[in-house]
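PROTOCOL LOG
Step 1. Enter all chains and additional molecules of the complex.
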Amino acid sequence: MKGEPTSGSLSRRALLKSVVHGLGVTLALGHVIPRVQAEERDVSKNETDRLIVHVARPLDAETPVQEFASYFTPNSRFFVRSHFGPPPAELLSDPNWRLSVGGMVDRPLTLTLKELKQCEEVAVTAVVQCSGNGRALHRPKVPGVQWRRGAVGNAQWTGVRLRDVLAKAGVQSGAHHAQLQGADRPVVASVPMFTRSIPLEKALHSDTILAYEMNGRPLPLLHGAPLRVITPGWMADSCTKWLTEITMLAEEAKGYYMQTAYRVPTTPVEQGTAVSGQSIPVEAMVVKSLVVSPQEGEIMKAGPVVIQGVAWGGEVKVAKVEVSLDEGKTWETARLVGEDHLYAWRQWQLVWKAKTAGTFTIFCRATDDHGQTQPTASPWNPSGFLWNGWDHVTITVAA
Amino acid sequence: MTISGYSRDFFLVIGLVGLAGVTAAQEEALSVISAASAQRAEGLIIARCSVCHSADLITQQRLPRTRWEATVGKMEHWGAEISKDETDLLVRYLSARYHPGAPDQLPPLDSEFRKAELLTQEPVAESQLKGVPARGAGIFEHNCQACHGAMAIGGVGPKLVKTPILKHEDLFTETVLHGRGAMPGWGSVLSPQDIADIYAWLVTK
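Step 2. Run joint prediction.
Step 3. Record the structure below.
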């Protein structure tokens, strides 16, 4: 299937020893070169260098896991999920773009980006992850973009608090949900728009922001320029891109993308069934970890091997990461290293002494501060959301 | 939210039993799809589904018939221009080729499709065809407008009105028949007469 890093048409294009500094050790990535190295880069053409493309149009592309050796995922290597693709650039540029705030508010607003920026500027480092990340790993297989491991990234998001903007408008007492609408539109008008809502409590949380910068740079077009929602700790279905309208409502937003899609059953469902009964929107992330190095299929010499990766717990910090080399019979606790922030991922490493030649599978699992541990495999659900089964890579120690 | 895990063995056993059952049935289904039907289905995918998304979204799925039915039904509901017959054909084709037991690696749809002969049996003698602008407007609306925009002023795809390609009808026809860059070929859906009609309409704009 399309989507393996080794076969992806955008990866490993040329030979270059590239070095990244991650986790306090220098790790040679090798054999990778960005497609374009010019300093001034055309954003639309180069926002996606090195990504693994699952759907060419509208673009759905994930990050090769090796990129997660960097604490911050670079903007150009950050996964892209599109429902309809970016709106025309002229709609998003200064003279045309506005944010409107309406519905159950005392003072409906229409703000320019400059006016919005009069609110206090805040920054949050947070993992953004597609709800369907890992969908391809569910069995039986489920429909949707067959994301594997890389529909996730960690970035610093800068913007203003959503609650400061809502305070300007004055939220009325009966409002319980903030409906979020971006400027993206389906090709065919009969296709439902991507309309979402988040509960008032999340909208008013001091860490929920409207972001206009990503990793210190203006938000790229593919990531929602000029403004997107960041709901730290929640899956990215709440992180509306190209935001233009906020509407305060008494109830959850109507429409396909809130009432049918991006929902999980409240009780376990029979595997393979298409429909389910009661469901709730996909919101908080579940604890999850990835082995970043070594990479799948790597061949190495006997001796010490630095196993490293990342782990995140959504709205809860990561307490522990464990590694197993015997398919989960025994586990060894890894060392948590680097920066430690709620909502961001935590880097981890463990030195394994590879003594004998052979093929080995390295498993990892994380546990969060609430004591939730990654399961072997996540509960099956019809749309394949919230995968957080143990991650693993298989490597060979040469004789 | 708390979600408990199931045991790995449980998953494996269910998976294998399910797979064996599905594979035999699906192989049988595949054999009843004639080559001509398969070509027609592939043409439909490229012409009808690709209006909104590239065909790779389809070819990466491995689904049982019930879920293909639901998916194609959803797309029809959302405005995909497919008739009842075409819906049935698509479901049959998709569940025969992209079933849960199918290998991860299948040849890409477009490479096979390009090898396939065009479904229109008429010789391509577009220079002798006389386009009817009034017909072309309707054909454009149903087939081209989603990408090239209303009145062909551009959208996801390039603007067509008052552009150099309209100076060369042969080049225009060739592009529509076989595709170019991101644009799929339309040879299985549009006849040379249809293309001549679209061309005739475009040059009047």
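Step 4. Note key features.
The CA atoms of residues 9 and 15 of chain B lie 10 Å apart.
The interface with chain A takes residues 1-8, 11, 14-15, 18, 51-54, 56-57, 59-64, 66-67, 70-71, 78-79, 100, 104-105, 146-147, 155-156, 182 of chain B (CB under 8 Å).
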